[in-house]
Amino acid sequence: MQVLIDKRTQLIKAKAADLGFDFCGIAKADFLEDEAPRLEAWLNQNRHGQMSYMANHFDKRLDPRLLVDGAQSVITVLLNYYPEERLPEGEDDYKLSKYAYGTDYHFVLKDKLKALMAYIHEEIGEVNGRAFVDSAPVMDKVWAKRAGLGWIGKHSNLINRDIGSFFFIGELILDLELTSDGPIADYCGTCTRCVDACPTDAIVEPYVVDGSKCISYFTIELKEAIPDEVKSKFQNWMFGCDICQDVCPWNRFARPHQTPEFNPHPALEQFTKADWEEITEEIFQAIFRRSAVKRTKLAGLKRNIQFLRE
User: Fold this and answer.
1) Would residue 256 count as lying in a domain?
2) Are 148 and 276 in the same domain?
3) CA distances, 282 to each of 52, 181, 231, 270, 276 (Å)
4) Of 122, 146, 174, which residue is a domain's last?
5) CB 3.0 to 4.6 Å from 149: which of 25, 252, 266, 304, for a disulfide?
6) Parent domain of 92
7) What is the set of active-site residues?
8) In a domain, 260, yes or no
9) Which residues of 293-305 are buried (b: 16+ CB within 10 A; e: fewer)?
10) Is residue 180 pLDDT above 90, yes or no?
11) 97 is in an annotated binding site
C-alpha cells in the first residue's frame, strides 16, 4: 500500500512542476494544535484591525477536515512572482507591491490548481477535494511550513531557502492519503532586518505582525481615512508594501518568475507620478481589469495617493 501512496505522491508533484509551480509539498490534514492559542491571542489583541473575516470560521482555520469531509492530505504549492524588471521605486515614485504587477494571482493559481485536480481525477480516480487560494479560512503559510516548503520568518511571511519569499501559496485539500513531507528548520537566526526596517512598527516582535499597523493594511484593507499618525511613514507605497521582503537577506536568491500573466501591464512601465495622480476611471479599468489593484477601487487608490501628497 505504501508503494502506491508514494507513487501517487510522485505523480502529483511531477504534474505540479509541469503546470509551472515552483515547489510542491504535502502535509497530513490534522488539527493545527500549536496554532490555536497563537491565532486566538492575535485576534484578541485586535491585530487584524478591520479585517473582520480573519475572525470568522475559527475552527475551520485550524482543521482542514471541516473544509473537506474525510480530508487526509494538504497539498501546498508555491508560485514565484518576483519580476525580472521592477517598476520604478525611486524616492519620488509611487510604489506598487510586486505581487500586484500583473494578473490577479487568485485567477492564475486557481486555474493551475483546477488543472492539477483534473489530473488527479484522471490518473488516480474519484477524489474528493477543494482548491484554495487565499480566499477561504486556510492558514496557507502554516501548511506550507508543515509541508517543508520553508519556514515562517520574523516578518510572518514564508521563506524558502531557494527563492526567498516572493511567491504565492495555494492548496488542494484532499481525502486522499499521500506521503507527507517534514518541516524544515528556521534559518532567520539573529537577523532582525525586517523588524528594524518596518516604518510603521507593524512587526511588534519577531514573528508577530500587527496587521492593523501594516502599510498593506492601510492602503488595501482599510476603507476609511488613513490615520494622521502614520503620515510620512509610507515611503511612497500607494498599494501594498514590500519593505520587509526587500530587506530580507534570503531574497538575494529571488529569481525572475516564469509566469507571463504576472508581467506588468505595458502601460505601467511608462507611468509617471503625474499619470498616477491624474488616473481616470477609464484608464484604471483598462490597466487593472484583472488585477489585484481592483480591490482598492479607483477611489481607494486616489485616497492613498492623496495621503502620500499631503
Assistant:
1) no
2) no
3) 31, 48, 29, 17, 13
4) 174
5) 25
6) 2-174
7) 134
8) no
9) bbebebebbbbbb
10) yes
11) no
Check whether 24 is labelled as a binding-site residue: no
Task: Say if residue 214 carries a ligand binding annotation.
Answer: yes
Using the predicted structure, report yes or no on whether residue 55 has a pLDDT greater than 70.
no
Pairing of strands 129-132, 203-205: unpaired
Q: Does the pTM exceed 0.85? A: yes
> Residue 63: phi, psi to the nearest 5?
-140, 105
210 marked among binding-site residues:
no
Residue percentage of the chain with pLDDT more than 70: 97
- The phi and psi torsions of 150 (rounded to 5 degrees) equal 160, -170
Residue 134 in marked binding region: yes
Res. 47: pLDDT tops 80: no
CA 170/CA 140 separation, integer angstroms: 7
Q: Which residue has the cell 511531477?
A: 14
Query: Among 174, 203, 219, where does a domain finish?
Result: 174
Number of structural domains, the chain? 2
Are 214 and 87 in a shared domain? no
Is 100:290 a contact under the CB 8 Å cutoff? no
Of the pLDDT bands very low, low, confident and very high (cuts 50, 70, 90), residue 38 is confident
Q: What is the pLDDT of residue 40?
A: 80
Mean pLDDT of the chain: 94
C-alpha cell at position 53: 473575516
Q: Assign 40 to helix, strand or coil.
A: helix
